[in-house]
Amino acid sequence: MNPTFGSILISVLAGAVQSGTILLLPTLGEVLTERSGVLNLGLEGLMLIGAFFGFLGAMKTGNPYVGLLLGMAAAAVAATIHAFICVTLRGNQTVTGLALTIFGTGLTSFYGDNWVSQRLTTVIQPMAIPGLSRIPFVGPILFSQDLIVYAGYILVALFWFLLFKTKVGVNLRAVGENAKAADAMGVNVVGTRYFWTIVGGALAGAGGAYITCCIHPYWLNGITSGMGWIAVALVVFAMWNPFNALVGAFLFGSIEALQLQLQAAGTYINSALLSMLPYLATFVVIIVATLIVRVRHVGTPKELGIPYAREEK
């Protein structure tokens, strides 16, 4: 392999892992939320809330990890509102999710105007894993990243194990498939849906905060640029499986990193066209995922988006 080409390829793939982590966190959260039967189309709004409050927290404290936690907490609060409307009030989940996106966009634009273009002086730094980071080719790509990327690796394995190998996962999937039967078996349907909706919101906030506390350490209104909508599409691509979510997120991360590398190299391709690549890929992913779901007979959780009330017969 040509040394120059090799270094460029490693740089692109390492960037793909970082960009993919932005998508991985909200996608994992939405997988869990939808497994419980709650549809949250407000990921874009939650990511914006996480990004803004993460930036604000890091700016005020000088600690990007505090900012990340604050972004997660703010998004979790917003997700609690979504859970209250959808689970307790049994509101329309599609409309509520869209309203959450509008709310997050408006809130962060209103309060973020005074912070536009201001930059953080301290950001989340890479921490190479001794030994593993020295593995040829793979090491610099996967094991010379930051703690949030490593946390993403761990969460994928942890959530897969939880979903498919534990009683908690069985109860979670049961609530999303047949809430009435789960309730009859003693599972707290309302509590389960609340908990995983809030967890999903916190992870969406983490994805947003990761943007401003690490990738782009400044504030711009709408800084997530539709990443939340891509995460929603990735849940379908992943077929509600955490490991598939990892593949999909890093695939999109590769597209994002490639288009940025091409723009930096001064390619003759129009920059606007390059910026469209991740969103064009979203359509392709949805089509492919739909076909795979049909062939493999893997469906959405049967009660996704359907409110549940114990008194209903």
UniProtKB/TrEMBL annotation:
Compartments, record wording: Cell membrane
Origin superkingdom: Bacteria
GO molecular function: transmembrane transporter activity
Transmembrane segments: 38-58, 65-85, 97-116, 137-163, 194-215, 227-252, 272-293
Family matches, as InterPro entries: ABC_transp_permease
Entry GO terms, CC: plasma membrane
Keywords attached to this entry: Cell membrane, Membrane, Transmembrane, Transmembrane helix
Topology of this chain in the membrane: Multi-pass membrane protein
Protein name: ABC transporter permease
Source organism of this protein record: Candidatus Cryosericum hinesii
